[in-house]
Each structure stands twice: as structure tokens, then as C-alpha cells.
Amino acid sequence: MKIFYKSIILFWSILLFLSCNSIDDLSNGEDEELIYNYEKHKNNRVATLIMNDEQYNDWVENNTFKKNKSNLIKLTKDIYKEFPDKYDFIILLLNESKTPKSLETESAKGEGSFQPVSNDINGIGCIIAQCTNPIYSNSNLFGSSEGKLKGVIHLGNRKLIKNGPILHELMHHWANHALETESVSNYGNNISSFPFGRNNGSHWGFTGGNVNGQLGGFIQSTLQEYDDSTYSVNKFEPVRHINDYHAPYNELELYLAGMLPIDSVKDFDVFKNITSLSLYAIGSASNKRMRFKASSRTTYTSEYLKELLGKRIPDVNDSQKNFKILLMVISNNSLTNEEFNQIDADAEWFHKKEFDNLPEYNFYEATKGKGSITIGY
Fold first, then answer.
1. What's the pLDDT tens digit per position in 102-116?
2. What domain range includes position 241?
3. Among 21, 35, 44, 312, which lies 20 to 30 A Cα-Cα from 342?
4. Do 330 and 94 touch, CB atoms closer than 8 A?
5. Domain membership flag for residue 16
6. Domains: count for the chain
């Protein structure tokens, strides 16, 4: 009988053990269940996150990337169930021929958006409003348990890797959190400028540079000064490069990104309190200038930048210059061969470490060969 009872006890103990482990396994399995389907493509550069029609329509029509951070976090966490945590940036590319109108806002076309996730650099300003310490990390919140993820970029159609704001959106990781800048919403007299830098839009506005910046600004060398605080410059865009983003980074952008020493940044001006702005042509219709009135003008030297921002840590000698990107196409169906070939070719071009004669700039060209990107898994 003792042997019988011992056998019964052993039987139930084993059954309980197996049952408990089965529940744990099931629970873990549920945690690991994917919300979306994924397709990995040849060349290992492009992957597709496939939503059902309802999920996709909700993502596009409700501009989820910009307006629903909790759903964005669910999406990135789902991605990390399928892909390793080794990427500095995730790019979410909509499988659309043109950017949907639903992504437009009052201030942007919706072609590109940047979601900051973490920062480990001192001396470039504060990414988070009214912060006292620029170092922060929400990587784990987005599913990056290793803390690698710096930011997530959303692009509104499948052609925007080569013909869109990808350089602009990447630069948002480093800039503009350093300078207080201002901009205006229209031409005219008796207008008022509004904050546009740091945590109020993060663009250069009426800021000079050696070239037009990816985040906006005018060419400093074209500045002319007149009486009564009036100035003129070659036509520019306060929010982005004037030539549809087809340009390299300017010196200030390269410094903030850790690609140049601060002494390489030539003096530039920042204008605020702008009360008038007009556009006029000189000689030919294509040669246009902008004339504006501003009661505040601040000249930034490299020494002043050092004093304002403090030392960049890590500096140009130790800064990260090579970055990994996961390119994820968001779609409600599998990519056609034509769609895949176009996206894959653009991705290959964007991460090439070479200069070409194309009007577009990839990351290597935009950083003057000092930085590089790898796209793939």
C-alpha cells in the first residue's frame, strides 16, 4: 500500500509539474505572438511588416505615428520579437505611391517624422523640453532592451529614401536642440515670428550657415544688411533645405552629429523678433532673394557655441560615426517585384560609402565621407 500511495503522490507531483510548466510555456508563447506578419526579402536590406486592412487603414488614416505613441510602441515592440536589437534607427516606410493626405498637418506635408527614443551625448542641447540632463533613454519602452535604439523615422511613401527627408529626419537626433530660433508662417508686414528651435519645432528658422541646412536656414555669405534692422539673403526655407533635401549637411549640423570639430564651424547669425518678410527677384525670375526685418541678431562663433553648449561628449575623435538601420516597409499586402526592386535599390544607394554624380545625397555624401550607415539585417 505504501508503494501504491507513493506512486500516486509521485504521479500527481509529476502531473502538477508538467501542468505548471505547460501554463508558463503557453503564457510565454502568448507574449511572443506577433501582432503583424513579416516578410524578409532577398539581399537582406528590406523587410515588410504586413498589417491587415483594418490595421493599415487605422495607421494611415489616423496618422498613428504622430498621434498615438502607445500604438507606435506596440509596433516597435512587435518588431523586436522578430528582429535583433542591434539597430540605431528604425525606418518605417509606407508602401504608398505618394504620401496620404491624412498625414499632413498645419505645419508639415507628412512626408517624414522623427520620434526620439534616447540620447547619450552631452553638449548638443536638450531633446526633452525643459530638461536639466540631456542624457536619457526610453529604448526599453520601445522594445530595445539593449538600449541601442536612438529614434524611429516614419516616411510617407516608398520613394522617400532617395527623394525625401531621410537626411533631415536623421539629423533631428542631433539637432536642433541647441539654439533658440524663430520663424514666420507667411510673407507680409506687421507679422510676428514664433519660437522654432529647441523644443518648439526643432528647425533652424532664420539661422545662417555655410550652406542651407537640412533643417532649414539661409546661406550666411549671402547676407546683406540695410538700415533700420532690415536684411536680405538668398531665398531659403526655415524648416528644410530649399532644394527638396538634396544637399549635404551644413557645418553646424556636422558638428552636432560628431562629424566635425567645433572650430570648423564658421561664424553664423541667428535672427529673431522678425516683423516683415518679402520675396523678390533679381535679374531673372529664378534668382530670388528674401528681405526681412528683425530686431534681434545674435552672432554665434565657435567659442560662443562652446560656452553655450559645453563640451560635446563624446567629441569628434570618439563619436559614433557608423550607424545601423532597420528598414521596415509598412503595407497591407506583400510587395510586388517592382515595389521591392525600387525600395531595395534606393536602400542600397543610401548606405553606399561612395560619392556619385547624382543630384541626391546619401548619408556618406551628406557627411562628407565622415559617417556611414548600414541598412539590413
1. 998 766 788 999 999
2. 182-300
3. 35
4. yes
5. no
6. 2
Other beta carbons within 10 Å of 309: 19
Contact 59, 294 (CB under 8 A): no
62 and 168 in a common domain: yes
If one compares 245 and 262, the residue with the highest pLDDT of the two is 262
Q: In whole angstroms, give the CA distance from residue 70 to residue 90.
A: 16
pTM comes to 0.88
Residue 26 has pLDDT above 70, yes or no: no
Q: Please check whether residues 77 and 152 belong to one and the same domain.
A: yes
Question: Which of 191, 244, 236, 193 is CA-nearest to residue 217?
Answer: 236
**What is the enclosing helix (H) or strand (E) of 363?**
helix 363-366
Q: Provide the sign of the torsion angle of the four alpha carbons 275, 279, 282, 286, taken in this order.
A: positive
Is the distance from CB of 203 to CB of 239 less than 8 angstroms? Answer: yes
Q: What pLDDT is stored for residue 79 in this prediction?
A: 98
Residue 240: what are its φ and ψ, rounded to 5°? -160, 175
The radius of gyration of the chain from alpha carbons, rounded to an integer in Å, stands at 25
Give percent of the chain with pLDDT exceeding 70.
89
- Number of Cβ atoms within 10 Å of the Cβ of 195: 14
Over residues 207-230, mean pLDDT:
96
Same domain for 159 and 195, yes or no, is no
Strands (E), the chain: 37-40, 46-50, 89-94, 112-116, 118-119, 136-137, 151-155, 182-183, 188-189, 194-195, 208-209, 218-219, 224-225, 230-234, 268-282, 284-300, 322-331, 372-375
Q: How far is CA 112 from the centre of its chain?
A: 8
Q: Write out pLDDT tens, residues 144-199.
A: 999 999 999 999 999 999 998 999 999 999 998 889 999 999 999 999 999 988 76
| In contact, 209 and 234? CB cutoff 8 Å | no
Domain final residue, candidates 266, 300, 334: 300
Boundary (domain end) residue, out of 300, 332, 363: 300
Question: At 126, is the pLDDT very low, low, confident or very high (cuts 50, 70, 90)?
Answer: confident
* Rounded mean pLDDT, 59-84: 96
How would DSSP label each residue in 177-235?
BS---EE-SS-EES---EE-STTSS---SSBEESS-BTTB-EEGGG-EE-STTEEEEE-
How much is the average pLDDT of 39-59? 96
Asked if residue 230 lies in contact with residue 297, where contact means CB atoms within 8 angstroms, the answer is no
